[in-house]
């Protein structure tokens, strides 16, 4: 047999290597294997985590009792509490709540701004076995009262800065709802209580004789409110199983266990300026912090100017984000604190590609972990365990190569009909069809247990609307995400858009139908249509509206538009849900099925301002003003403060 020349051997080896690299690049084998290793290790960590908790003691309060008592639990504006200190505060508050009549199984409204008081309250209620219903602190009047009533709360606890709004809403139902306000030093002592009772904080020598009732996976842990896909806010019943999942240490923070490296410090110090009632902060801040004996660093509110100084002062090692937050930070002037901090990891959702890499570079963020999941959603994608993703992974929510796509059984992206806004069914089988690469479709996930499912509390109709039945076999049940995603040709998964009337702005879901209803209820309005519109330089979609008015003169129109903001605000519309652009038209057209022709408002030429019948929201002045060419230019440049 002829002996091959060493050069031939080397050339053949090089060719084989190139071929292997090409195959791996196309099929994504190495990334898929990494994902499978991650999932295997995560399963082991979950088992260990459950063994610590015990199957009959799965609750937020039990997690608190297991945390390292010497470690810092909370940091807030220069003050810190160890887990031992927090346990003492929680025990005192639990006694106070018991004196107010709170018992195991009760639902208590939590209407509070970011503060240690809010965190202590959530834990204290869970110690009693009660369910905290965490309401959006921006809600007012009828919308706020709706959330109190849909949760079934007879008691609302609030911080003094917003207690007056809760008391005002509660007055509408007489003595059915009590409002108490709690201040442990985070708010000025002279702040008016505005009709709310002062919380009965125990004084002197008290005996903590409260026995924490046993809780299982199927028991509700908290209610988190969301707008859902249509209608008013709904109470998502988060079961204790989700608390177990989200408090478990991630393999990404235990890299040696599955062969990857991480820049993350552990246990983490987690900084968030986003509301605690928001799922991102609650799960990845509060829950993950206590499950790892980490420190939850709370900011009262978002301030682009002071953000990095707060991160520096808190000594946080990771920050939480939604995409728009990162864009706001990039728009700020350079600061000495831009890189003078300990945070090397950012975790969140909605970070766009054009922001991702500049954000990392400017603020010295070594690692970004992007994930996709809604509060009540089962669909989950992670772009968290791939190091140094580079430009290809930026702006993506996960990865699905050929191997994972073949192995995946409980989650799919299916073909979608944009006209019916329903998944496509194969006419020969009646089953849904998995979308191909580069084909956007709706993300769905299999419902494996109704007992642990995050349903809409007291709203069976809305819960059922999230389901798809007989999807791939007769009798199966899947949950719709309401979102369009796509697996690209290179395997990266990208978020595309919201389906139907709901759109996202400032990291919040906005129901176009609900906002349209608020506007259409005004006497001067003949008809209205509201949609989401993508604007260059802004994450998500801005609300835009077309209105037909009963008033005829330009003077009456201007007077109506000048007062529109205040009137919607009085109805309880949160600031992020206001339409940013409004066009006045002679009529709002409808289609053959009497549905509003949304494409008409989407096609409005906003740059043509000659008719003087287009308006923009001036957020600083809290009113709508006529849109002129200069302001529209600012919008196009992404500089307008929408």
Automatic annotation (TrEMBL):
<dbReference type="InterPro" id="IPR000873">
    <property type="entry name" value="AMP-dep_synth/lig_dom"/>
</dbReference>
<dbReference type="Pfam" id="PF00501">
    <property type="entry name" value="AMP-binding"/>
</dbReference>
<dbReference type="GO" id="GO:0009898">
    <property type="term" value="C:cytoplasmic side of plasma membrane"/>
</dbReference>
<feature type="domain" description="AMP-dependent synthetase/ligase">
    <location>
        <begin position="69"/>
        <end position="383"/>
    </location>
</feature>
<dbReference type="InterPro" id="IPR042099">
    <property type="entry name" value="ANL_N_sf"/>
</dbReference>
<dbReference type="GO" id="GO:0005777">
    <property type="term" value="C:peroxisome"/>
</dbReference>
<dbReference type="InterPro" id="IPR020845">
    <property type="entry name" value="AMP-binding_CS"/>
</dbReference>
<dbReference type="GO" id="GO:0044539">
    <property type="term" value="P:long-chain fatty acid import into cell"/>
</dbReference>
<comment type="similarity">
    <text>Belongs to the ATP-dependent AMP-binding enzyme family.</text>
</comment>
<dbReference type="InterPro" id="IPR045851">
    <property type="entry name" value="AMP-bd_C_sf"/>
</dbReference>
<dbReference type="GO" id="GO:0005811">
    <property type="term" value="C:lipid droplet"/>
</dbReference>
<dbReference type="GO" id="GO:0004467">
    <property type="term" value="F:long-chain fatty acid-CoA ligase activity"/>
</dbReference>
<protein>
    <recommendedName>
        <fullName>AMP-dependent synthetase/ligase domain-containing protein</fullName>
    </recommendedName>
</protein>
<dbReference type="GO" id="GO:0005324">
    <property type="term" value="F:long-chain fatty acid transmembrane transporter activity"/>
</dbReference>
<keyword id="KW-0436">Ligase</keyword>
């Amino acid at each position: 047999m002829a002996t091959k020349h060493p050069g031939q051997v080397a050339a053949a080896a090089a060719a084989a290597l190139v071929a292997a690299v090409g195959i791996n690049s196309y099929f994504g084998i190495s990334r898929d294997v990494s994902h499978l290793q991650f999932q295997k290790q995560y399963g082991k960590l979950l088992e260990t985590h459950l063994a610590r908790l015990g199957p009959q003691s799965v609750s937020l309060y039990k997690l608190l009792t297991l945390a390292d008592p010497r470690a810092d639990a909370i940091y807030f504006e220069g003050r810190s509490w160890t887990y031992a200190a927090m346990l003492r505060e929680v025990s005192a508050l639990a006694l106070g709540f018991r004196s107010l009549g709170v018992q195991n199984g009760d639902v208590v409204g939590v209407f509070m701004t970011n503060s240690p008081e809010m965190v202590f309250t959530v834990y204290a209620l869970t110690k009693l076995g009660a369910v905290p219903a965490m309401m959006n602190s921006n809600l007012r009047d009828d919308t706020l009262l709706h959330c109190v009533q849909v949760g079934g709360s007879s008691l609302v606890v609030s911080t003094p800065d917003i207690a007056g709004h809760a008391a005002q809403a509660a007055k509408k139902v007489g003595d059915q709802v009590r409002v108490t306000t709690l201040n442990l030093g985070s708010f000025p002592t002279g702040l008016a209580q505005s009709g709310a009772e002062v919380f009965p904080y125990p004084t002197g020598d008290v005996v903590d004789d409260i026995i924490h009732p046993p809780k299982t996976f199927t028991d509700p842990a908290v209610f988190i409110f969301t707008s859902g896909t249509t209608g008013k806010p709904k109470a998502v019943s988060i079961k204790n199983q989700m608390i177990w999942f989200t408090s478990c240490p991630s393999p990404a923070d235990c890299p040696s266990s599955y062969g990857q490296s991480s820049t993350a410090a552990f246990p983490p110090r987690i900084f968030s300026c986003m509301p605690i009632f928001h799922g991102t902060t609650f799960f990845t801040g509060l829950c993950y912090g206590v499950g790892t004996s980490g420190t939850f660093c709370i900011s009262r509110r978002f301030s682009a100017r002071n953000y990095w100084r707060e991160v520096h002062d808190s000594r946080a090692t990771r920050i939480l984000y939604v995409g728009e937050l990162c864009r706001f930070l990039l728009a700020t002037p350079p600061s000495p604190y831009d890189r003078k901090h300990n945070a090397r990891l950012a975790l969140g959702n909605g970070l766009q590609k054009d922001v991702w890499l500049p954000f990392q570079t400017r603020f010295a963020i070594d690692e970004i972990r992007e994930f996709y999941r809604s509060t009540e959603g089962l669909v989950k994608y992670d772009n968290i365990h791939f190091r140094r993703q580079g430009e290809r992974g930026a702006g993506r929510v996960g990865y699905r190569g050929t191997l994972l796509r073949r192995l995946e059984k409980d989650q799919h992206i299916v073909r979608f009909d944009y006209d019916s806004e329903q998944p496509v069914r194969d006419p020969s089988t009646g089953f849904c069809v998995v979308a191909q690469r580069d084909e956007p479709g709706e993300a769905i996930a299999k419902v494996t247990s109704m007992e642990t499912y995050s349903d809409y509390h007291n709203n069976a109709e809305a819960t059922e609307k999230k389901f798809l039945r007989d999807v791939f076999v007769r009798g199966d049940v899947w949950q719709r995400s309401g979102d369009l995603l796509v697996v690209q040709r290179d395997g990266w998964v990208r978020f595309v858009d919201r389906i139907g009337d709901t759109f996202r702005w400032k990291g919040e879901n906005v129901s176009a139908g609900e906002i349209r209803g608020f506007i259409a209820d005004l006497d001067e309005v003949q008809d209205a249509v509201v949609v989401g519109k993508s604007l260059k330089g802004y994450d998500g979609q801005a609300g835009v509206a077309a209105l037909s008015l009963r008033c005829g003169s330009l003077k009456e129109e201007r007077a109506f538009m000048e007062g529109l903001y205040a009137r919607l605000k009085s109805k309880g519309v949160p600031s992020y849900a206001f339409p940013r652009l409004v066009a006045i038209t002679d009529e709002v057209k409808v289609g053959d099925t009497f549905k509003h022709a949304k494409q008409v408002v989407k096609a409005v030429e906003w740059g043509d301002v000659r008719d003087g019948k287009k308006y923009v929201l001036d957020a600083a002045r809290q009113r709508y003003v006529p849109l002129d060419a200069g302001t529209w230019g600012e919008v196009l440049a992404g500089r307008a403060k929408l």
